[in-house]
Amino acid sequence: MQWKSFDVHKADEVDVLKDFRSKFYIPTTPKGNEKVYLTGNSLGLQPKAVRELLIEELDDWATLGVDGHTHARRQWMPYHELLTEYLAYIAGALPTEVVAMNTLTANLHLLMVSFYRPTKWRYKILCETKAFPSDYYALQSQARFHGYPDAVVEIPTDSHGIISESTLFDFIDAHSDDTALLLMGGVNYYTGQVFDMEKVTHFARERGIVVGWDLAHAVGNVPLKLHDWGVDFAAWCSYKYLNGGPGAVAGIFVHERHHGKELPRFEGWWGHSKATRFQMPHDFEPISTAEAWQLSNPPILSMTPLLASLPMFAEAGWEALRSKSRTLTTLLANGLCELQDAYDADISILTPYENEKSGCQLSVIFQGYGRAMFDHLTQHGVVVDWRYPDVIRMAPVPLYNSFEDIFKTLEIIEKGILIHKK
Ligand SMILES: *Cc1c(COP(=O)(O)O)cnc(C)c1O
Which amino acid positions bind pyridoxal 5'-phosphate, per UniProt (predicted)? Predict the structure, then answer.
């Protein structure tokens, strides 16, 4: 099999991103061996630098108390601003268009307050079939809240959950007269399909539809150019590919064309002009950037990990990240195809991984194995996840996965196939 003759040690040796792996804690088995961690799409690994930074914040709190707002080594008051330039790089945005705040589902709601403006004639919300449940609940409840309970319309998929380009564009076109908002995942969490966000954004906006993207599975996974693409707004969480830690502070993008406009918005004091915020004025005066959508003062302890994790993306650079990611994922996909042929095993890869239509993740069904293959991988120290009813998601991440990780995974799957055959 070709993957067996692939020189993984050489590939790891010449990997330009190889030094990043040692900047993360790799989970271990009870015996202390490193696991093969392919679940960075669900919870990214902990950068080793987080601990020291957190201790510094705890020390500043201990010694300074309230004075930490202005005198901590990293002032708490404008703490979120420390992340802006890194988020702008990752999102392909102007620094004024991004801000770290709250959590993903909360942000989707806040953004829909401003950007879902239904009228009697234009009220529909288009999303993908099988959108992430939290997104669907958010959309449905916004639709009901605005008095349009039937507004949410799902874009159909094929039997594997994939939406073809023609279906997508035909569907948007067919609904263009009465659709107010298109809000879908830029990368589908279940299938790993990457949508052509640029093309979809242009196509829908030309038809008078406001376009928002949920980028939970896209940020830190595929390069984004939200500003140039003309996206109206976007939101993401930071604990998946961004390695911000469980429940990390999320992020939003609001295109600059919407800054300083009269928009309905749920407001809080952190969205108020910084010049007059502490004069505690009676009337709200919004900051003229995406920061106007902030509600509260930043949660320092859950933002700190992002100070360690986000700079790594700019340091590594998108070109190297994407290139290694393509190689890892393609190697895994090719190995699975070879195993399928060699053992006549029924392995289907749902993810359209060719032609840039995937990021890190492959969603795979081992037909006839049920959960057995998942359990086998888990027992052998390969961390993947199981999505009801039969999908195993595996996501090699270019910052910390190695070529050896792919090799080990394929070997363990091969063993699993042989055991199952007996
Ligand atoms: C992970 C994920 C979420 C999770 O939402 P939280 O508000 O962070 O709990 C929501 N939507 C999508 C598409 C996701 O992938």
Answer: 104-105, 132-135, 214, 217, 239, 269, 297
Protein residue whose Cα sits closest to atom 15 of ligand 1: 216
- Report whether CATH 3.40.640.10 matches the domain 53-315: yes
Pick the CATH number of 8-34+317-421 from 3.40.50.2300, 3.40.190.10, 3.90.1150.10, 3.40.800.20: 3.90.1150.10
Domain range list for the chain: 8-34+317-421, 53-315
Using the mean position of ligand 1's atoms as its centre, give its distance from the Cα of residue 365 in Å: 23
User: Is a pLDDT exceeding 70 seen at residue 422?
Assistant: no
Max alpha carbon distance in the chain (Å)? Answer: 76
The preferred substitution site among 41, 134, 222 for testing ligand 1, maximizing ligand atoms within 8 Å of CB, is: 134
> 217-241: per-residue pLDDT in tens?
999 999 999 999 999 999 999 999 9
Residue among 399, 403, 317, 409 at smallest CA distance from 13:
403
Spatial CA neighbour of 286 closest among 298, 299, 276, 278: 276
Question: Is 105 annotated to bind ligand?
Answer: yes
- Chain segment 259-311, per-residue pLDDT in tens: 999 999 999 999 999 999 999 889 999 999 999 999 999 999 999 999 999 99
Ligand 1 center from residue 39 Cα (angstroms): 15
Which atom belonging to ligand 1 lies closest to the Cα atom of 214?
Answer: 13
- 3-class DSSP state for residue 302? helix
